[in-house]
Target: Hydrolase
Amino acid sequence: MKKSLMLYLFILAILMNVFTYAFYSGEVKFGQERYDKTTKKLRDSISLMKNKLAEADYFSLEHNENAQNYFDNSASGGKVILYEKLIPVVTEKLLDFNSNPKGNPYTGQDQIGPNKFIINKVKILNHRWIIADYSNGELWGEVLLKYFVDNDDNITFEVNQTWLYQK
Model:
């Protein structure tokens, strides 16, 4: 009886070890598959976001080599304007007009009510065009501007078109 009890316990221990091994090896396999799926999904999402960002930045001075070359006048004996330094200067100069008591004149809008129109966001599209978002706190709009940089590094702006959205 003692021998058969030991045999049963031995067989039971072996079975428990086999089932435990099978369970944990299946759990590891399941965890690895889940990790691989999640990693693939995240890589696809990152790739998609990179593509969307590249598409969104298509119209920007930072990514337009032809527009960048416009500021390189070294071949004709002129000077080179670095677009990396030009972008913040142009943006700052345009936003400086927000301090005007009647509002930024480059929104193309006269003051409506007590609040003045100011430019909130600026995107320099190329060597000539800027698109900007403006508002007075109640109404919002967008403006397409031309900008010019002369030989003395003076920057001037010209309103091309403006659009004020309805409430």
